[in-house]
Amino acid sequence: MKIRHILVEQRYEAEDILRLLQQGQSFETLAQKFSQCSSAGSGGDLSDIPLGRLDESFREAAELLKVGEISPIVRTRFGYHLIQRF
């Protein structure tokens, strides 16, 4: 499964980014600009991480997505995520 994500500390940040995505802005560009994960430089791409290594709530949300879909905001111990399957 190919997934990318945007990680932020606060829910309001994720809500703001989700609005930008809904307005048609690029997931990859927003990940590069706002994500606090080391994957930000690659547009949030996590494709090489085995699903078993992901936080359970993150993995469950990612598995529900169809290609091209973006998840609702997902909270993990790391913060708040927006996930896209591609």
What's the CATH class label? Alpha Beta
CATH architecture type: Roll
Spatial order of the strands in the main sheet? Answer: 1-3-2
Structural class by sheet pairing and helices: alpha+beta
Number of domains: 1
Report the sheet-strand fraction: 15-25%
- Low-confidence segments, ≥5 residues, pLDDT <50? none
Round the mean pLDDT to the nearest integer and report it.
96
Gyration radius from CA atoms, angstroms: 11 Å
Secondary-structure element order, as H and E?
Answer: EHHHEE
The major β-sheet equals:
3 strands, antiparallel
In the CATH hierarchy, the third-tier topology is known as: Chitinase A, domain 3
Overall geometric form: globular
Number of helical segments with 4 or more residues: 3
What does this structure look like?
The chain is an alpha+beta fold. Helices cover 34% and strands 19% of the residues. The protein has 3 helices and 3 strands; from the N terminus they run βαααββ. Strands 1-3-2 form a 3-stranded antiparallel beta sheet, sandwiched between helices. The longest helix is centred in the N-terminal third of the chain and has 12 residues. The chain is globular. The model has no long low-confidence stretch (mean pLDDT 96).
Short summary:
This protein is α+β, with helices and mostly antiparallel strands. Helix content is 34%, strand content 19%.
